Queue: 3 jobs
Job 1
Amino acid sequence: MTYLLTLATAFLLAVGLTPVTMRLARRWDLLDRPGGRRRHVGDIPRIGGLAIFGGFLGANLLVWALPAGWKPATADPEEFFRWTGLLLGAAFVTGFGLLDDRFGFSSWPQYLAQIAAAGIAIYFTIFIERVNNPFGPGQIIFPGPVVWFLTVFWFLGFINTVNFLDGVDGLASSVTAVVAVVLAIHMFRTGQHSIALVTLALLGSVLGFLISNWPPAKVFMGSSGSYFLGFALAALGLIAGARVATVLLVMGLPIMDVAWLIWWRWRHGKPLFKGDRNHLHFRLLDKGFTPRQIVLAYVAFGAVFGAIGLMTASTRVKLLALAALVIVSAGVIWWASGGE
């Protein structure tokens, strides 16, 4: 019942808070208007991410307030400490994202905020310290400076990937939901029942928001939402026993798109971090695909590779799956870009 209560609470809070954020956006004139990269119709509120964060936070606080007998036990003495760091980091990036929605910061303040968010995670022991050795038994343990570098890179990568992904109605929300489902299944299977509640809170809040964000969207999540989702996915991927390969399999196509786009901009002498319509989802729109078709294709892609990650515990097999993902993604991107 606690699992259902968490999922339902996050869902209902997000559903209820989304119209509130829409009214606030119109009052504060935080609206996305058609023009440039934006091809939607009408003025759309862009701070719906506050509803996602509100549903997530409310469900987590409810679970924390429940009697001990209602909550699954944990054998990890550091779990509450990391949970606190997750909420603080999420609140930080959501707040900064809201400021970005209001003032439209340049790239460097955004990256500094993302590094600060990664620092919060590291302080609360959410970091990449070791990985399974794909070439033999045991694990590879990284020294301190490498831990910092990998963890900061991990968080920046996820925050920016979700931020770039938020270009088609419902796309970032739907992909996040797939990752949350995969992580929740993994947590249940490995006995991490208490932290699974956090993942269900994320899933419920995203699904509640998706009702209004599904194409044609009535509200956008904005930077407050994409920053929050990117941070939450990065953190939960590490808290869930550092399921780095599994999360990369689900997010592989969006990550490959970001990597290709940076390379494409560098090759053509374009600003690396200035928005344009060269993302894969925009190119698919220009080829005539509908937003719903694009969302469903991304969901199917992530679900297939996420299932592969769940079905095998072999690091070597996951590396082979990642290699296959890179090849398939590169082919799709090459085709969508017209062979550029």
Job 2
Amino acid sequence: MTSRVLEVAGLTAVLKTAEGEMRPVNDVSFHVDRGEILGLVGESGCGKSMTALSLIGQIDAPLASLSGRVVLNGQDLMLLSSHARRKLCGDRLAMVFQDPMSSLNPVLTIQTQLVETVLAHRHVSRARAKARALEVLQTVGIADAKKRLDAYPHEFSGGMRQRVAIAIALLNQPELIVCDEPTTALDVSIQGQILAEMQRLCSETGTALIWITHDLSLVAGLADRVAVMYAGQIVETGTTLEVLEAPRHRYTEGLIASTPAKFLGASRSRGARLQPIAGAPPSLARLPSGCPFHPRCAHAVARCQQPLEETREASGRTFRCINPGPGANP
């Protein structure tokens, strides 16, 4: 097995709406290696969740069209039938959503939901499936896991339900897990426990993880690499340290400037006044020409309104910016 688990190239989702066609995922390219955690960050509405749904093939075909390449360990998922792609979900590819109550069946016990997930993808006995269910509940830190198997989702706290959702994702030892802001509604202590657990699992099992969030401070302590998204495009990628300490794209620079330094370990002085990004994200149905960020950017020049090519550095960093920040190479 190669170290490259996922390779996404030119992924584009076109939606038909009353306002016309829009591209919430527009020529998106990135990769994730074995055991690596990639943080996908950006403001609400920038296309993060749509990217996740595009990866797992959960966009309704009558309303949207997908193009590009999504290669999971050498297999291009875009070439599979919808039936074959659905069979991958919960097996080689898993997703954890933001609200566990929307992904857990309220009228089935936790044991039933875990066991049926195993049996849907593995030819094993029900006893073996139950043993695996117990194993993953213990792995994600559910106390008295054997007793809790017979409980229903409403008998768990929010943090425990999210652990169950993560346990379901881990059941069949997937090659890739996509987490769409799964800890946003949880208190800080529970969030910290789950993040530490996910880091440990990725390190020990080699599972690759994409963690979608708008919280840069969370990414700073969790991710190995970061991909910054704006208006449906990936505008910058790099290691977490590179992106947070020396941002190339002006949008990334703005995100960091609007986050308290003590949460990022940033080099700027603590206690400095936050600098919010001016304006609001553009409508995906009416994107400005060139760089979609230029109407909000204090450093925009005339060339920013022209089509942009992605810049790739020798280190593997990428960014889409004609007038990059001071961290960029001259």
Job 3
Amino acid sequence: MSEPVPTPSLSKRWLTRGVLGIGLASLFSDWGHEAATAILPAFLASLGAPAVALGVIEGVSDGLSSFAKLAGGFVADRPRWRRPTAIVGYFATAITTFGYAFAQSWPAVLVLRAFGWMGRGSRGPSRDTLLTECVEPGQTGRAFGFERAMDTLGAVLGPLCATALLGVLGLRGVLRWTLLPGLTAALAFALLAPASRKIAGNKAPEGPATIASRFAQLPRDYWRYLVGVFAHGIGDFAPTLLILRASQILAPRLGVGRAAAISVGLYTFHNFVDAAASYPAGALGDRIGKRGLLAIGYIVGVMSYAGFIFEQPTIPVLVVLFGLAGIHDAFQQSLEKSLAAELLPASVRGTGFGVLATANGIGDFVSSIVVGALWTLVSPTAGFVYAGIFAALGAVLVYSSRGSER
């Protein structure tokens, strides 16, 4: 059982200045770097980069980001470092994304994206720890749901803006434009997000001195919870594979071009559903308990995968399946972190968030590779079966794990 955290009297409103600032930072940061990500393949092609370059850039960046999340967790256990670390992380993502505009080769893009993703990864635990402190313990679901909704809204607006601006500004012009939302994100965090508050009139507690002692203080309940999260994670493949499968299903009837356009539209719908469902999922978790609701969210993912397994979907069925996938993502992202916040002692909450993010990062890496291999070597159905099995296993393990939800 995690130790209780004494807290001063906070406003009963969950949408505090800090929650708003962190939400706006997530919105604008994703708006900027998702705009760059949307045109990155075309930009690399303009540099004469081989097809493998995009895979190398994304793989190296995601790997470094996972390690940065773990290191960022250790930093986040030092309260005085949380706010500066997050601000620097937002600035790093903004500046390096802007820097793509001046790259003359794909290795330069690799270096810039790697540094940017390290900043993005390292800021996460500090941001999540500060977000937890911005609200009363019973309001964490709403706070994390709001942050997730703003983050996903940015992921929708980024590609839409990139598409709208591309004809006017060109590839490098769009990349230069990303500096505006990127710096807005850093400023929103700097101006609105609070430093770690004082607890019971004293300075916020410092975490244990060594890495080993920090891990030792993570509650047993939390480790059991992480097993369920990781089991789900190694089946939770990248949503771009849903776009690929929809294209494959629709192409024989509609042609490659129209199928691709509809598939992108379906993914945009997925992101809108994700954004719309995130806050309600977190708020409902605050009311009825997060553990069971998170397990239900995982099962919704199983339902989405099953739709691809048992029939060749029509466009209306694909709309339902992409919507279910969006609900699954909203429940996962809103509830995993808010439940972790309730299970973790304040002194090692940053480390706990870092471990959670790293476990999810490793899970994403494994799942995308395994599902892709099964898809190629066996069949798409084999990939969806694998994903469904581990999503269901994660639901069982998370629901059956023991812990205290305050």
